[in-house]
Amino acid sequence: MGFYPFAFSSASKPKVNVVSVENFKGLDLRNTPATVDKTRSPDAVNMLRDEIGQVRKRMGFQTVKTYSGQINGVYHFGEDRIVHAGDKLYKGTTQIGTMNNAKSKGWMLGGKLYLLDGDKLRRYDGTSLVSADTAGYIPTVIISRDPTGGGTAYEDINLLAPGFINSFYTSGTGTTRSFQLTDGELDATAVTAQVMTSDGVWEDKVENTDFTVNRTTGKVTFATGIAASPVMGEDNVKITAYKTRPGYADQINKCTISTLFGVAGAADRLFVSGNPDYPNRDWHSQMNDPTFFGDLAYSLLGQDDSAVMGYSVVADRLAAHKEDSEDGRNVVVRSGVMQDGEPAFPIVSTLQGEGCVSQWGCAYLGREPLFVTKRGVFAITAEDITGEKYSQNRSSFLNPKLIEEDLSGSFAFVYHDFYWLFCPSGRVYLLDALQKSYSKNEPYSTFQYEGYLLSGISARVAWEEDGTLYFGTSDGKLCKFYEDKNAPVSYQDDGAAVPAYWTTPYFSGKVSHNRKDFQYLSVSVLPGARTGLRVDGQIAGAWKLLFESYGSARYFDFSQLDFAKLSFLTDTSPRTVYRKINARYVDKLMLRFESDAANEPLGIYGLTLEFMEGGHF
How many C-beta neighbours within 10 Å does residue 435 have? Predict the structure, then answer.
């Protein structure tokens, strides 16, 4: 067959070839456009999976409220929205307290909301906000104590509260006036006491009326002697005193990382970490009471040159993610068990793998915990926990762009089967739980999630409210994503257009070095009362407009009437836009489907390309 520069000869005119794409997946940024699978895109922005095999433009958002400070966290207490903005906490728009001006983390436990912001652990009960160290549980540190000393240790000292209780037992036939506490150097806070009367009733006693206190030595002296306990073997004197231990409360207050975990995986204790003074240490609270952190209720997780960065709960195990360390053992796994009647959280394994880089990048996609590393998003699986395998990369398709982001400031959230990773750049990386690819390119990973890239979303934190995705910004805005994909208003960001496009890989026919004449293109698209489509082709390295289609993809909807974009068609099923195109004498063709107008959707369900091939290019 001869090659003619302007046309195929009539004698050797080749047959028409057809290439179709009926199942669109996600982005592939790791391969060149020449090697990307035709179902994926080497370059797409603001497009994501609609139904399986279909992609559409993301919906926009609207600002619903603005506060004076950056949004650091949003929570819910009953029907109330609790907003941490700047250095203040609000119920709706009413300020209810002050906070640290940093991202916070909140947990509901025992009907109360506990907030951790790196400055204080605070508790909100629906009425007032208080610091946990001013409302902390007062432990009974010793029982069966003789007035002169001794006794049996009972509860740990509470890191969050200076108060402690000594419980005494008096015996014999005489009376006792002096009682030695376990600690001296007491605070000025009034000491209180209770004494059991002869009929077994506890009677309150008041300092400087019923007894005096030597705060230096910790000795309490009653005005009248205390007789033997009226109940054999039962303590009959309880003294509550206060001693501030420097640095104790700050061990908890300066933490920034938290999760709920407990014995056998129960979510009934608050685990905290992220204290810069103790990078490899974490603490756990008493069951159902985050105002009580015992002074011995802590664990050392690996070396102190690698800080704890986040938590994942896998089955009934707690995995603590750490920064990169020299030995690469960056995941410490613990169980929750009872030992000698006391809760214990022993280390059961450590896993090789990437270190975590974001305290806010841990989230659960389905039942799989994901976390952010300098090499992308990784997962810990149940098999990893039991088999000591490596943690597994899940974002391979997005990694070339993803790893260029400031991932230390990223924020992860799971919504509608997607893991959303919001980056400070305004870009968002999505991993799709409903679409997995089993690839040989990542030998230590069983599969990869299909991924997408969004832009123009300056989210600092994100949350779900009434089934809708919200986010907060650094300039104090609370923003809400639209939900109705049929409403034109859903495709704008506070009135601005949402520019979106989907680029195909190169179509190069059966023989890459043969000449092609691309003649026809049909595209199955999402119809709308207002919609439009621009199709460009990359020819000889330059983008060229192939055609624009607007009216053929529209349908009539009186509620969305716009005379400038009026169509009398009433068919709301997917439309096929079919056009002749002029891309001749080329070796390959790349297509780009684009929509950059406000209030106009774009959905791509399939495409068919017809071309002739023959002769050398």
Answer: 17
Residue 594's DSSP bridge partners are 501, 534
Give the distance from CA 367 to its chain's centroid: 14
Q: Contact, 313 vs 363, CB < 8 A?
A: no
**Cα-based angle 246, 247, 250 (whole degrees, multiple of 5):** 135
Gap between the Cα atoms of 372 and 591, Å rounded: 33
Give the whole-angstrom CA distance, residue 234 versus residue 230. Answer: 8
Q: How many domains does the chain have?
A: 3
Beta carbons within 8 Å of 542's beta carbon, 6+ residues apart: none
Lowest mean pLDDT among 411-420, 435-444, 452-461, 516-525: 435-444
509: left (phi over 0), alpha (psi -120 to 50) or beta: left
Q: Is 180 within the bounds of a domain?
A: yes
pLDDT tens-digit readout, 533-548? 999 999 888 999 999 9
478-514: pLDDT as tens digits: 999 999 988 889 999 999 999 999 999 999 988 877 8
In a domain, 573, yes or no: yes
Same domain, 93 and 23: no
Q: What are the φ/ψ torsions at residue 460 (nearest 5 degrees)?
A: -95, -40
pLDDT tens figures, 385-407: 665 556 789 999 999 999 999 99
Domain boundary among 242, 257, 279: 242
225, with CB counted inside 10 A (0-12, 13-18, 19+), is exposed
Q: Which of 14-18, 271-275, 370-374, 455-459 has the lowest mean pLDDT?
A: 14-18
Q: Are residues 32 and 99 located together in one domain of the fold?
A: no
| Radius of gyration of the chain measured on its C-alpha atoms | 33
Q: How far apart are CA 232 and CA 389, in angstroms?
A: 58
Residue 121 and residue 170 in one domain: no
Q: How many helices (H) and strands (E) does the chain have?
A: 3, 52
Q: Is residue 149 part of a domain?
A: no
- Cα separation of the two ends of the chain: 13
Short-list 449, 317, 309, 427, CA closest to 379? 449
Lowest mean pLDDT among 96-100, 104-108, 242-246, 584-588: 584-588
* Per-residue pLDDT, 556: 37
The overall average pLDDT reported for the chain is 91
Band (pLDDT 50/70/90 cuts) for residue 1 is very low
Any idea what the CATH number is for the domain that residue 213 is in?
2.60.40
Strand, helix or coil at 552?
helix
CB 425 within 8 A of CB 462: no
Continuous segment of H or E residues that includes residue 165: strand 163-168
Q: Sign of torsion, CA 552 556 557 561? A: positive
Q: What is the predicted pLDDT for the residue at 572? A: 55
Give the pairing type, strands 163-168 and 140-145: parallel
pLDDT at 555 > cutoff 50: no
Paired with 338 in beta bridges are 343
